[in-house]
Amino acid sequence: MFQKLMNLAGSEGEEGAGVSGELKPAVPVNKAFGADKVVCLVCGKGFTTLKKHIAVSHQMTPKEYRKTFGVPSKTPLVARKYSEAKRKIAQEKGLALKLAEGRKKKAAGK
Known about the structure:
Largest sheet: 2 strands, antiparallel
Number of strands: 2
Radius of gyration: 21 Å
CATH architecture: Orthogonal Bundle
Mean pLDDT: 81
Shape: elongated
Order of helices and strands: HHEEHHHH
Low-confidence stretches: 11-20
Structural class: mainly alpha
Strand content: under 5%
CATH topology: Arc Repressor Mutant, subunit A
Helix content: 55-70%
């Protein structure tokens, strides 16, 4: 019985390996990157950020994901509105100024 289960698991693993080698985008690449959400090209689900999803659900790094689907490295894997909101919050908190001050202190200390 154990051997039969192993054979079944082995055949499924081989099929999965064949499918992952020839992935086709679930949606067109140019439509996957919107303002409100970014659509995963593997499964077609929408997210605000893709990095964690592709790592957990598809065991891919962003570099592998980009290479598989031909996504340019300059294209962010984050929704535009989400990125803009995070940037606005950082500016309101003055994080850029604090970072610059910290770098000056560190440089002066050396």
